[in-house]
User: Fold these one by one.
Assistant:
Number 1:
Amino acid sequence: MKDFTWILLSIGLATLIVLLIKPLWLNKRHHSKIKISNKFVINNNELHNDKPNQVIALRFSPKVKSNIPLDEVMKLFVRHNLSFTSMKIFEKKHGNKKLFNVANLIEPGIFVENEDIPGFTFFFQQTDPKTDLSILSEMFETMRELCQHYDAWILDDNGKNIDRSNLNNLLNSNE
């Protein structure tokens, strides 16, 4: 009878080990790597554009670190045909077409009531090389007019001063 007990105990122990190891073995065996490319488009009826839609952004930063009151900003932007949106940023439109947006220089970029503004980020998304330069020029002119009210820098993403002579370079460097 003792021999029979050892046999049953050995079979039970072996079964227990198999039950514990089998799920680990199955998980290792069925692991596979999936590589997903984010360059697929479903149901896109638009014409293919070889150039990706880059965002062009310029910063408007006063030379003397001073904040601008929001009510003053609102009046100034309304005079320059910029409208305040539900996203709490400003946008400039020509008819139904959005030309460019203006956000707060400080993250998260929205304009909050009773909060002074240290500067602005003017930006637009490139879509058509034929119109991108004219949108950039109009955006730059608006910024230049604001510089008449505030002694400010117009800066690119690298912190380099931008003037009318290097606007084309700004578009070409993002291609």
Number 2:
Amino acid sequence: MRMPTAAVYLSTAYLGPIQYYCKLYHYGSAMIEVFERYPKQTYRNRCIIAGANGPLSLSVPVEKSENAKSYTRDIRISNHGNWRRQHRQALLSAYNMSPFFEYYADDFMPLYEQPFNFLIDFNDALCRLACNLLDLNPSIQHTTKYVADAPNDFRNIIHPRHPQPDATFRPVTYYQVFSQRLGFLPNLSIVDLLFNTGPEGLIVLRDSCCEHALAQNN
């Protein structure tokens, strides 16, 4: 794996998609943006998993701020409703028949019981866990200010509703529980990769990186 000198710039992400973790794999060093004006309806507070009937979006509710232009670092998780239980149940329903769910579920589920106040802290904890289970060891830091023209900038390219062209990502297929009925669903949450492939998920990340294209961009 070639290690560029410049870090990749990423948004925070709730159980981010495979594309997100491909950047962590390839660059090995990441700056997580916390000084942006928090945008709605992005991977920052949502993930997409494979439900029995197709892609299923799970969103972490956040508190409305009096300041319409709050920084991402200041976004608080809302404790209203039963979203934690609903997310745990959705993961159980989607992946209880997957090959590695029983090995990893006990690592993920306790994080939904912890009283995280800020979205960035919850996302960071889940990201560290996913990286650890994948034997992926990127150096991850938070930004200290907003840089408009950052190098290797994927902060807004990786998007659930409006993805931007990314010549450096080519999703490869892997086993999915519902693939016979739904076909292969690309670029789902990292938990889809972990629960279905276990430690071989690292190979999927490697093969999903278009290293030739990455070399041309650096």
Number 3:
Amino acid sequence: MIPEPKKSETFEVKRTIASLLCAVFLTTATTWLPAQEGPSTAKAKLDALEKAYKESMATWQKEERAKIGSWKEAAKKAKADGKDVPSMPAMRMTPPKAIIAKHVKTAQANALEYAGTDDAIPFHLWALRYGSRIHDKEAVIAAADALTSTHIKSSKLEEVPLTLSYMGRLIGQDKAEAYIHKIEMNSPHADVRARAILARVTNALQEKSVDSMAYKGAKEEALRAAGMATSAAIKAEVKGLIDGRENLVMGKVAPDIVGVDLDSTAFKLSDYKGKIVMLDFWGDW
């Protein structure tokens, strides 16, 4: 005969069954819960920010085009009725500040969420760029302060110096240069320091006379940046800047451009030596 279970054993069996049923219920219930919506990573949030900005721009442009469409219809009708054609409505050439400001605030909120990590850098950079478009000096300075202090040791700052070089009109040239100098002096990463040097001297390389002391000093600094850089892109950029000023000038032999013509035939510029050549540079976007 099977012995009758003791009361304590019966209690344990019931408790085990109850636990199993509870686990099954919780597992099943999980499938009933709605999926979490919205981006959950910094990259996803950055993509969402860019998407939202583009959508805002598309909506604004559509509204501006609609104004012209309505005017054309009204003008056509007025002309047909023998009435005065209404004046063409003024169109905005730049979006309202409020549209961009909304997205700058989102970037700032995301930067705060990832404060102290490299994930915050793209959001600070976004606020820096787009904050300057709406002349939001406070947003620009806040982003620049964070990038050159909290994140000064990061290897992710290569884009920052050049962006800062465009901020002079808004925050003052001295302040913009001070931020760049801080990166150059304090970053432990050679490529970031090289980018900071180029941000300082590119303007002189592009605009000063090649015979001037300003150009020669800028060239020396650019070559120093290329020498310290580990990035092939930085080295090529420096070479391109210098070659563009010193070799692509009147009186110099043109580079031997190589390409393929519309008939898929390979050619070199030197093939046409002694002939008149017209170069037509074009593009589409």
Number 4:
Amino acid sequence: MPEHVTKTRIDKWLWAVRLYKTRSLATEAVKNGKVKVNGDSVKPSFEVFPGLILTIPKGVVKYQYKVLAPLERRVGAPLVKDYMEDVTPEEEKMKLTTLEFMPTAFREKGTGRPTKKERRDLDDWMETE
């Protein structure tokens, strides 16, 4: 860990550890309350320090990461493990595997768009599942 930083803005940290592709996406996620720190919503200017638990929803899974060290600059993927630890419970990760086995609506290729009646039937079927 070459940097000797004690605190870093949360939006900058999320970008630096590659949880978001751009810093502006990280800022928007924090502003919209998607990123929680120890269960509470924070502002993008919130400063992270070692020991915090961040909860970040991605799809149906709420990932949890523990901050190991703050950093100012984006690091390569192999170095991310030095700055954060994935502490997501197994129950959350299991949601990804259960989605693979969920039934989905299927239409034969080349049958065109569904009619109104077929669409209503599909919607009814999706609500019952």
